[in-house]
Amino acid sequence: MPIHIVGGGPRELLPDLRAYDGKEVQWVSVDRGAETLLEHGLRMVRAFGDFDSLSSEALVRLREMLPELDIWPAEKDKTDMEIALDWAVEQTAGPIRLFGATGGRLDHLFGNVELLVKYAGRPIELIDRQNVITVHRPGAHTVLKDERHRYVSYIPVSETVAGLTLAGFKYPLTNSHISRGSTLCISNELIQSSGTFSFSEGILMMIRSSDFSGCL
């Protein structure tokens, strides 16, 4: 059961949300993301936030869709996105995708990336119009070539990532150790229909990006 969470980030950075819809997909909104989902005609199963940024018309429509709407206080110990993601992780072991979670305020962007680190190893993606971000634990992982996101970058989010091996890439690596702050593995490309990355210790972020389009 895929769960797709839509936050209130800049709409110009959103991909086409309808392309991610499906019979089993459950849509969840975070604060102003509710208005985005209403405008796209995508039905929500849950909504999180204080909704103070919603128009009165959107709030009425949201209450009609979710009669038992929980309105969270503005002052709390977690962001609305973290509350929504914690809920989603309890509901499914399947894929979770975050939209509207990049751009705008940098504190929210970095906070949302940290949420991926919190749940490293779970099938969670942070997606915008240009990028797909995932965070991985040690092991061997397969990457399929995607012409929409031709550039593949790896960034250590632990102090060290040990034994990193990249196969099927333009710039391969074999049993390399990289430290946090390294840019060694930025902007690589697959040269085959698929490739693999593996490592023995640490936590590693993978970012798949399209060509620069001027939207970031």
Kindly describe this structure:
There is one protein chain. The protein is α/β, with parallel strands linked by helices and 216 residues long. It has helices at residues 33-40, 56-65, 80-91, 106-118, and strands spanning 3-6, 26-30, 44-48, 96-99, 124-127, 131-136, 139-144, 151-156, 160-167, 173-179, 188-189, 194-199, 204-209. The protein has 2 domains: 3-129, Rossmann fold (3-Layer(aba) Sandwich); 136-209, Sandwich (Jelly Rolls). Helix content is 20%, strand content 32%. The strands form 2 sheets. A 9-stranded mixed sheet has the order 3-2-1-4-5-6-13-8-11, sandwiched between helices. Strands 7-12-9-10 form a 4-stranded antiparallel sheet, with no helix packed on it. Strand 5 (124-127) and strand 6 form a beta hairpin. The protein is elongated. The protein starts with a strand and ends in a 7-residue tail after the last strand. The mean pLDDT is 92.
SS field, number of helical segments: 4
Number of domains: 2
The major beta sheet can be summarized as: 9 strands, mixed
List low-confidence stretches.
none
Q: What fold name stands as the CATH topology of the largest domain?
A: Rossmann fold
CATH top level label of the largest domain? Alpha Beta
Order of helices and strands: EEHEHHEHEEEEEEEEE
Using only C-alpha atoms, the radius of gyration works out to 18 Å
What proportion of the residues is helical, as a percent range? 10-25%
Protein name: Thiamine diphosphokinase
EC number: 2.7.6.2
GO molecular function, one term: kinase activity
Domain Thiamin pyrophosphokinase thiamin-binding: 139-205
